Amino acid sequence: MRTREDFPGRSDAARVLGRVLLVSVAVLYMVLFLLLPLITVFVQAFAHGVAAYWRALADADALAAMRMTLTVAAISVPLNTIFGVAAAWAISKFEFRGKGFLLTLIDLPFAVSPVIAGLVFVLVFGARGWFGGWLSEHDFKVIFAMPGMVLATTFITFPFIARELIPLMQAQGRDDEEAALSMGAGGWRIFRVVTLPNVRWGMLYGILLCNARAMGEFGAVSVVSGHIRGETNTLPLHVEILYNEYNFVGAFATASLLAMLALLTLALKTLLEGSHPELRSGRPRKASAPAPRLAPR
User: Are 207 and 282 a contacting pair, CB within 8 Å?
Assistant: First the structure.
């Protein structure tokens, strides 16, 4: 176990001074790069009063952007939930060839710039892309329409749920599943009765982060949306358009919605981490709950 002598500083005064300096630097950094921009968003949003703020949010284009944002998130998050749970279950509970390659593919959106990802979708599904001719013949529009926005958002956000569940499932091991298998349960029944209840809070945690990123995604969606006002604009794109038009009240009023979403996500994230510490550490609690009983068939 470490003692006070293990830490830098030759005297108590030096240790206290070093601690104060480190804390001061951290607080100053948070104030400059986190707290001050957040305060600025709300100050500018209400700069011309509450009435102007509500008028900006009640604008037809703003409402259309809200609907588009919710629609894209409502499609991409469930898709990523299904994929994330399936990928985590396969990687943590089974051994198969290509397991490392699958893990690399899951991490790919973290390594690729969102703008590049959007450009790839344009090259594949655009008018002059690989499938552009076939899509035009069948009168199905992907780029500059909602399908392209859903594809881009799904690509950018699909690692979140899988990456939350994989370490949690690996730490839990296979004992419960093997016990259920020895009692005659099938694969789907084991997953539904044993595996899924054990990871439900981790799944909720990943869904929370995935949804926040889906609603706030800008780069990839900006490339494939076409910025059609009232049709393919999401809230981040609507903020950019208003700001470029020097409509600062409208831009910051819309940005305040995204800021409140970030604060709500942070609050829920903290609440989940507080009530379920294993979400933060990736390790199950020492005093684990008894394995669920399998109901008779």
Answer: no
